[in-house]
Design a protein that fits this description.
single chain; about 400 residues; mainly alpha; Serine Threonine Protein Phosphatase 5, Tetratricopeptide repeat; 3 domains; 22 helices
Amino acid sequence: MRIASNEVVETENSLDWGNLRFIHPSERNPLIARFLVIVISISSLVCAPTYTEPIEGSDENNQSQEYETASAPELNSIPLDRLKQAKEALAKGDPNDFGLRFELGKALRDAGKHKEALEQFLGCFDEGSKHGSSQVGFRTSDLLSKISKLGVRYPPARKALVDRRNATSSAIQELSPPSLSGHPSREYFENATKLVGDFSALNRHIPDDANTLSLFQQLVSNPDRYSVVLEDLANRNLKFFIQNGLHEEIADVADVLYMASYTMHMHKVVNRFDDIREELPLDNGDIERSKERIFLWYEVLLATKRTKDAKLVADELADLWNEPQTYYLLATAGLRSKKPTFANVSHILTAIEGEHRNSAYYETYVRLLRTLGETDRAIQIAESHIDDPQLLEAVKDTIATLLKELSL
């Protein structure tokens, strides 16, 4: 059985690679979409949002590195002609133009005019979502990053983020139930997911992820009213929630198998068309993060004893990326879940077969056996490899350390 065989959601609410978007329930069983739809979905949502290029003469990378910490030496003043250019460009253009206001904010910031810079940045954030989907991702990532860094030198900037986070949190809690039928309208759905997106992003940049966790734990007691919010919160904060042991809560509010299978399907689509892959604006960092999320969903399935679904995901992952690292990541996900299966032992053995000199693989193998109650076998395996002449000394050291642990 193959999962997510040809499912593609033809919707503005489809995924981006770094953070799989929550998809409207009415669109979770779509007709097979055209390849063009797939390319458009990936291109529009994976790529970094477009915005006005920096004004000539700026050195954004060097400035941002120097600007990140309060202990950094005071910035040299940006030439006044750059600030003048930014002001003139905004005066000649649309006063609400996102890119022009963002460039003016950077010029003001670099000139030490922090109050005026904050006004421009906040204007971009507060109004940016109204000016096209291409700016939505940018306003909750790079833009918030700029405001957060400004807050190191100018505390009102951080307060502005906290104020907006608190207002967004209140708006989420005041949401009425989706509908009497239990299925949210598109308008409700879009409003709820936008609020969750802003809330999660604001907390990441304040930073205050604990506040995100607190709201989730507060709302999870009322799943009927906050079903849309809870699933989107779990999706957007998946790794953080897992690190805090919320596997059961995630499985209760999110369609775990769907999320994993849909992400894998999108990877399969891109891999299938290698001849055009270079032409797509795909960010390798986002793609790697999306791969990581599949293993996180797999961990949730194991932790909640959904072993059949976990096997489906594992088999599909092996089909997608048949390499030692894939099997190693499956095995380590099993360890993290604290409820691994003997399938995870098979995974790590496959990884060792393909790359037998990796000490992490041997360590995972022995720890899996111990977790599964096979301590004697773990000791036997470790002892049988301690003198293997083909192994690197680092691997032997790892095995020796494990033997000491197992003997305690």
